[in-house]
Design brief:
Layout (H helix, E strand, L loop, with lengths): L5 E3 L2 E3 L3 E3 L9 H10 L2 E5 L14 H19 L4 E5 L7 H11 L3 E4 L7 H5 L5 E6 L2 H15 L6 E4 L5 E2 L4 H6 L24 H19 L5 E4 L5 H10 L3 E4 L1 H4 L8 H9 L5 E5 L5 E5 L2 H7 L25 H10 L22 H8 L3
Parallel strand pairs: 3-11, 4-5, 5-6, 6-7, 7-8, 8-10, 10-11
Antiparallel strand pairs: 1-2, 9-13, 12-13
Helix pairs in contact: 1-2, 2-3, 5-7
This protein binds flavin mononucleotide.
Flavin mononucleotide binds next to strand 11.
Length: about 375
């Protein structure tokens, strides 16, 4: 199968793949730059991006803003002509400032989820940066398109659909995750592993088709193409093929890139993926109640047993977090992950992470995903 490049406005990625943003510290300049160099779209995660800076504990916001620039420059040096963007979560405190810093650094694209990026066009202003919301349902795509059109007279430049097999925080309730079970088609292969009984099956493909129909309506209205990219559990050439057969213009892949040589995570984090078995991948609740997917390690077992994990002074990451009430600090747990302290860490991963058997290069992963 021949794949067309992924295009939005003046941006063209020769290979229609976006490397999904992975925080904290998993997709930084090295991974994003390498993906962009090979022809895909490289995405740096802005989530607590300054965690290695000496002043991070005292002033996380300042450290993050400075590091946005640094990691962008690193990526740009690797891929002078590549497409490089940032993943910036709506749920982050100082979201606006991080978006502004990414634009100032020179980002081609901002991808924003973990909430609906309702006012992203206002923050981007007259800048040429491309804007892409992440959605998991037709309802959310409709809400965003309507609101952006009414308030800002513009459309998203690209839409990322994130399905139930993705890694990190998920845009579904635990009940919804239970609905999307094994037999919902190739794109839903692998169990959602929510730990409870399968209470019914629903095809996520149906939701993808509905989202595509809604985007089409707006495409016709505005008379230009709005590419749609599908994410979640896409980890081999057959799933890439199946995604395109549904009518999307590209795929977003994250988990496969963790076990690459160029991924910015510590080697022990990558090894945790290589060691994981299918039953080790579980649905977890983040401290602020959102479901996510991660490896069941010592840390996660403690959390499940109701243990309260002591944490460092608040780093001010999420809007909704109350440090006095949380079972653990998500920033602490994800920084442990990035640093390779894997038994004390929240090890986010996609549903198919257990399939990784070796460390590869980014180029090998991309060739494998798009092989005939
Ligand atoms: C380790 C890890 C961290 C992630 N962190 C984020 C994040 O900070 N923000 C976000 O929007 N998505 C995050 N994601 C989701 C990915 O960007 C991507 O959309 C999704 O995982 C794709 O599914 P796949 O991992 O099965 O390929 C993360 C995924 C993983 C595996």
């Amino acid at each position: 199968m021949d794949y067309k490049p992924l295009k939005t406005g003046n941006l063209t990625a020769k290979v229609p793949v976006i490397q999904g943003g992975m925080g904290i510290g998993i997709s930084l300049g090295n991974l994003a730059g390498t993906v962009a160099k090979v022809g895909g779209i490289g995405i740096i995660s802005a989530a607590q991006i300054g965690f290695k800076e000496a002043d991070f504990d005292q002033n996380p916001e300042k450290a993050n803003l400075r590091t946005i620039q640094k990691e962008y420059e690193k990526a740009r040096k690797i891929a002078p002509d590549g497409v490089i963007g940032f993943n910036i979560m709506v749920a982050m405190r100082h979201y606006e400032k991080y978006v502004e810093a990414a634009i100032q650094a020179g980002a081609d694209l901002i991808i924003s989820g973990a909430g609906l990026p309702m006012d992203l066009p206002k923050i981007a202003g007259a800048s040429q940066v491309k804007l892409a919301p992440i959605v998991s349902s037709e309802k959310s795509v409709r809400v965003i398109f309507r609101y952006w059109e009414k308030k800002y007279k513009r459309q998203p430049d690209l839409v990322v659909i994130e399905g139930p097999l993705a890694g990190g925080h998920l845009g579904f309730s635990v009940e919804e995750l239970e609905m999307y079970e094994e037999e919902c088609g190739n794109l839903c292969h692998g169990s959602v592993n929510s730990g409870s009984e399968n209470r019914g099956k629903k095809k996520y493909e149906d939701e993808v088709r509905k989202i595509l129909e809604t985007v089409k309506i707006y495409e016709e209205k505005c008379d230009h193409e709005i590419p749609v990219v599908l994410a979640g559990g896409i980890d081999d050439a057959s799933k890439v093929k199946e995604a395109f057969a549904l009518g999307v213009d590209g795929v977003q892949v994250a988990t496969r890139f963790v076990t690459t040589k160029e991924c910015d995570a510590d080697i022990r984090y990558k090894q945790a993926y290589l060691d994981a078995k299918k039953e080790d991948i579980v649905i977890v609740k983040s401290p602020v109640g959102m479901p996510g997917r991660a490896i069941l390690n010592t840390f996660q077992k403690k959390v499940r047993a109701g243990e309260k994990i002591p944490h460092s002074p608040c780093h001010g990451c999420l809007h909704k977090c109350n440090p006095a009430e949380i079972p653990y600090c998500i920033t602490d747990a994800l920084i442990h992950a990035a640093k390779g302290e894997v038994e004390d860490a929240l090890l986010f991963c996609g549903a198919n992470a257990y399939k990784a058997t070796k460390i590869e290069t980014v180029e090998e992963v991309i060739q494998d995903l798009f092989k005939a």
